[in-house]
Amino acid sequence: MLLPKHSLSFLAVTVTLVILASGCTSLTPMPPDVEIPPTSPEDPESPPSDTPTPPILSTLRGVIEFEGIGDFTPSATVHIGSHQVVSDDGQFTISGLEAGKYEIHIMADHFHTYKGSITIASESVLLEVTMKMLYTPEEMDLFARLVYAESAGEPAFGQIAVAASVLNRLADSRYPDTLRDVIMQTVEVDGRVYYQYSPILDGRIWELDPKTQPEAYATSMEAIFAAIAGEDPSQGATGFYNPSKVSPTSWVTQQPRTVRIGNHQFFL
Q1: What residue spans of 108-236 are helical by DSSP H?
Q2: What are the backbone dihedrals phi and psi of residue 222, each rounded to the nearest 5 degrees, phi first?
Q3: Residue 258 contacts by C-beta under 8 Å, 6 or more apart in sequence?
Q4: Which residues are CB-contacts of 241 (< 8 A; sequence separation ≥ 6)?
Q5: Calculated CA dihedral for residues 76, 78, 83, 86, nearest 10 degrees
Q6: How far is CA 1 from CA 4, 6, 13, 148, in A?
Q7: Per-residue pLDDT tens for 99-133?
Q8: I need a labelling partner for 193 at 20 to 30 A (CA). Which of 1, 69, 92, 143 fits?
């Protein structure tokens, strides 16, 4: 049966009202599922990340002063944590240190080992250290007198070589373990006692007077300072002799030679 036109219009309005009442806003199909982007890391509601936070790294810079050797600067070995570096002209830099407290050791030949602790923060840290010499003023005075007595008149590097050979003897297990004992060492041969260095035997070691011969004394000290700082023209020698004053059959002429400087032949 056909409905009148006004009945069809009424039916259309009724259907529309029913759809709106049900909450639908569109009669088109729903789009496919869309992936929701992850929550921003700054969002406090986001889940914690598994990526570890990198440690804060800092840098340690150091300045080392060496007491008792003027302007000379030996090298030193610096240990801190798992790091080890050698200083250059009294300075060193260690990078990549995590924040925290560390033990630090600094070692240099002829000086007491420095032992301390340092706290590394996020900023760079500056450490200033003074290294104290192993030898007493009395030993240094005796040393200067020996160098003068043995090498006065020799070229500067010949005097340094004499000083270095004494220090090489000190480091050698065949000889005494203090500077004074090395200089004053005696040996017994056929019932007679001999000093290792002839100026002690004949008394020339006491001829140098720092008050009346300040320049000569300072020159000897400069040679010692250079040797302590690591200069060694003797090439590792532990002794020396004057070939013109020694018999060719002497025991010293049979020792392994290193270098000839001025009037001295150096030997191991």
Answers
A1: 137-151, 156-171, 179-183, 198-202, 214-228
A2: -60, -40
A3: 234, 235, 236, 237, 266, 267, 268
A4: 250, 252, 253, 264, 265, 267
A5: -20
A6: 10, 15, 21, 142
A7: 999 999 999 999 999 999 999 988 899 999 999 99
A8: 143
Asked if 65 contacts 111 with a C-beta cutoff of 8 angstroms, the reply is: no
Q: How many CB atoms lie within 10 A of CB 121?
A: 11
State the residue for tokens 């929550």: 39
Q: What is the residue whose two structure tokens read 């406090």? A: 44
Sequence-distant (≥ 6) Cβ neighbours of residue 174 within 8 angstroms = 238
CB 91 within 8 Å of CB 62: yes
- Lowest mean per-residue pLDDT among 8-17, 82-91, 114-123, 213-222: 8-17
Quote the Cα angle for 248-249-254, to 5°.
90
- Top-confidence range, 39-53, 154-168, 177-191: 154-168
Q: What is the mean pLDDT of residues 39-49?
A: 55
Average pLDDT of every residue of the chain: 87
Tokens 């990198």 belong to: 54
Alpha-carbon torsion (183, 186, 187, 190), positive or negative = positive
- CA dist 226 and 267 (Å) reads 20
Encoded amino acid at 42, one letter: E
Structure token digits, residue 116: 């301390």
Q: Can you tell me the distance from the alpha carbon of 111 to that of 123, in angstroms, rounded to the nearest whole number?
A: 30
**Cα R_g (the chain), whole angstroms:** 42
The answer for residues whose C-beta is within 8 angstroms of residue 144's C-beta and 6 or more apart is: 208, 217, 220, 221, 224
